Structure formats: structure tokens, C-alpha cells
């Protein structure tokens, strides 16, 4: 019997980089655009599949956050799924993660200038 995979890495927030932020925003805007533009073609690719992929990719790029769960649920409601909720959620999570990282890193004390005697 195989051991269960370690999900700790999935829930751990990675260090945000410009590339991760940009990729997460591209995924969010792309998913919202796809759902708005092709909403009438829901029979070809159900919105729930798109939302599940968006949640997994977003959690992989910027780390899982509790805000992803209500966003996923809101996307299941017929009228509310037309709002750009993935984009709003990703922007909010990025802002919260940046704030957490800024507060977690201790300030670097200024170095005393060396005096040659």
C-alpha cells in the first residue's frame, strides 16, 4: 500500500514572486474571461470544471487561502458566476500574502559605517 501524499506543501504559502503573481492573475482573468465569453456554451465545457482547475492552479501558484473556498461556491450560483470573482479573489489573496510576508520578515538594521583609522 502506498503512503498518502504530503498535502502540507499544498497548504503552505510559497514566497510570492513577480512571476507567481503574474501567472495567478493571468489564470484568474483568463478564467473569468472564458466564463463570461463562453457562458452560453456551457454544455461544451462546464463552468464547474473550469472553476476547479482555476482553484487548483491558483492554490498551486500563490498558496491555498480560505478565500478560495467561498469564491468557488459563489461560482456555482447561476447569476453570480458572471462576476469576475476569481480575479477579485486572487487580487485579495495576493494583497494579504504580501502583507503577511512584509510583517514576517524582520527589518534589516542599518549597518554602521566602517571608520578607517
Keywords, please?
single chain, 117 residues, mainly alpha, 5 helices
Q: Per the principal axes of the C-alpha atoms, what is the gross shape?
A: elongated
Report strand %: under 5%
Helix content class: 55-70%
Return residue spans where pLDDT drops below 50 for at least 5 consecutive residues. Answer: none
Total DSSP helices:
5
Biggest sheet character: none
End-to-end Cα distance, whole Å, is 70 Å
C-alpha Rg, in Å?
Answer: 19 Å
Overall pLDDT confidence: 81
Count the strands?
0
SS class:
mainly alpha
Helix and strand sequence:
HHHHH
User: What is the oligomer described by this structure?
Assistant: single chain
Query: What number of domains?
Result: 1
What does it look like?
This protein is mainly alpha-helical and 117 residues long. It has one domain. 57% of the residues lie in helices and 0% in strands. It is built from 5 helices and no strands. The radius of gyration is 19 Å and the shape is elongated. The N and C termini lie far apart (70 Å). The mean pLDDT is 81.
Amino acid at each position: 500500500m502506498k503512503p498518502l501524499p504530503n498535502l502540507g506543501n499544498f497548504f503552505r504559502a510559497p514566497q510570492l514572486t513577480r512571476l507567481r503573481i503574474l501567472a495567478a492573475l493571468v489564470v484568474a482573468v483568463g478564467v473569468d474571461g472564458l466564463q463570461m465569453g463562453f457562458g452560453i456554451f456551457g454544455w461544451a465545457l462546464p463552468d464547474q470544471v473550469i472553476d476547479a482547475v482555476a482553484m487548483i492552479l491558483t492554490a498551486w501558484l500563490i498558496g491555498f487561502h480560505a478565500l478560495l473556498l467561498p469564491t468557488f461556491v459563489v461560482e456555482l450560483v447561476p447569476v453570480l458566476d458572471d462576476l469576475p470573482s476569481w480575479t477579485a479573489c486572487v487580487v485579495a489573496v495576493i494583497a494579504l500574502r504580501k502583507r503577511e510576508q512584509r510583517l514576517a520578515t524582520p527589518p534589516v538594521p542599518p549597518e554602521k559605517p566602517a571608520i578607517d583609522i
